Amino acid sequence: MIELKTANEIAKMAVTGEFVADTLATLSIEAQPGVNLLQLEQHARELIAERGATSCYWDYAPSFGRGPFRNVICLSVNDAVLHGLPHDYVLRDGDVLSLDFAVSIDGWVADSAVTVIVGDSAEPADRALIESTRKALDAGIAAAVPGGRLGDISAAIGDVATEAGYRVNAEFGGHGLGRTMHEDPHVANRGRRGRGLLLRPGMTLALEPWWARGSDRLVMDADGWTLRSADGSNTAHCEHTIAITESGPRVLTPSRCAQQTN
């Protein structure tokens, strides 16, 4: 079931979105060589507590994970791309780090992700990979207009990946959200224009392009959560929460992705 949100409810989600975006910006800057992932997890917990927010990840137990998840942020390094479990790992110069964060404030959720390169040693191929996910996110957002179809968003995202030479996995993608983190519909990162659900004002979606430099297949770590590229190639993930309005798409997690390159 898809719940259409009122303008007032979207405004409440935007308040949550501002906090999510600010937290990701703060943690992205802190993600420097020598910093342990557990330090970033701890700071995220402190920021949540100070704001009076509620983590959407803590105790989350979906069918695809070995629940419950007992952290407040997903931190995925290099070939890890989704659901990275924070652990005792010290970041190194040149690491590719994806940060995925979702909370609820006053009963309304926002979800966003950024990928950054740690330190000063960045491979051009990693920068290009990250940039492709940002461009795909922009394309997906631009396609989220009333009267369009869900497939328009998926196709716009997938076309950017294909044109850049990346393979797209459609198993994990974007999703609806609002009162909870995961609601209908599923938003695949590839699709066909003119197909699928009719886009209507009041729909709120998390769009999240992600892919690897190589394989589109995933393998799971022994922790039961962290998903990695099957061939060990580096990955990137970018996400915004948006609302579809009468005048077009509105980003509720203000643009930070393109600014976070470390």
UniProtKB/TrEMBL annotation:
<keyword id="KW-0378">Hydrolase</keyword>
<comment type="subunit">
    <text>Monomer.</text>
</comment>
<feature type="binding site">
    <location>
        <position position="100"/>
    </location>
    <ligand>
        <name>a divalent metal cation 1</name>
    </ligand>
</feature>
<feature type="binding site">
    <location>
        <position position="208"/>
    </location>
    <ligand>
        <name>a divalent metal cation 2</name>
    </ligand>
</feature>
<keyword id="KW-0645">Protease</keyword>
<protein>
    <recommendedName>
        <fullName>Methionine aminopeptidase</fullName>
        <ecNumber>3.4.11.18</ecNumber>
    </recommendedName>
</protein>
<feature type="binding site">
    <location>
        <position position="239"/>
    </location>
    <ligand>
        <name>a divalent metal cation 2</name>
    </ligand>
</feature>
<dbReference type="GO" id="GO:0004239">
    <property type="term" value="F:initiator methionyl aminopeptidase activity"/>
</dbReference>
<feature type="binding site">
    <location>
        <position position="182"/>
    </location>
    <ligand>
        <name>substrate</name>
    </ligand>
</feature>
<dbReference type="InterPro" id="IPR036005">
    <property type="entry name" value="Creatinase/aminopeptidase-like"/>
</dbReference>
<dbReference type="InterPro" id="IPR000994">
    <property type="entry name" value="Pept_M24"/>
</dbReference>
<dbReference type="InterPro" id="IPR001714">
    <property type="entry name" value="Pept_M24_MAP"/>
</dbReference>
<dbReference type="Pfam" id="PF00557">
    <property type="entry name" value="Peptidase_M24"/>
</dbReference>
<feature type="binding site">
    <location>
        <position position="239"/>
    </location>
    <ligand>
        <name>a divalent metal cation 1</name>
    </ligand>
</feature>
<feature type="binding site">
    <location>
        <position position="111"/>
    </location>
    <ligand>
        <name>a divalent metal cation 2</name>
    </ligand>
</feature>
<feature type="binding site">
    <location>
        <position position="175"/>
    </location>
    <ligand>
        <name>a divalent metal cation 2</name>
    </ligand>
</feature>
<feature type="binding site">
    <location>
        <position position="111"/>
    </location>
    <ligand>
        <name>a divalent metal cation 1</name>
    </ligand>
</feature>
<feature type="binding site">
    <location>
        <position position="83"/>
    </location>
    <ligand>
        <name>substrate</name>
    </ligand>
</feature>
<keyword id="KW-0479">Metal-binding</keyword>
<comment type="function">
    <text>Removes the N-terminal methionine from nascent proteins. The N-terminal methionine is often cleaved when the second residue in the primary sequence is small and uncharged (Met-Ala-, Cys, Gly, Pro, Ser, Thr, or Val). Requires deformylation of the N(alpha)-formylated initiator methionine before it can be hydrolyzed.</text>
</comment>
<feature type="domain" description="Peptidase M24">
    <location>
        <begin position="13"/>
        <end position="246"/>
    </location>
</feature>
<comment type="similarity">
    <text>Belongs to the peptidase M24A family. Methionine aminopeptidase type 1 subfamily.</text>
</comment>
<dbReference type="InterPro" id="IPR002467">
    <property type="entry name" value="Pept_M24A_MAP1"/>
</dbReference>
<keyword id="KW-0031">Aminopeptidase</keyword>
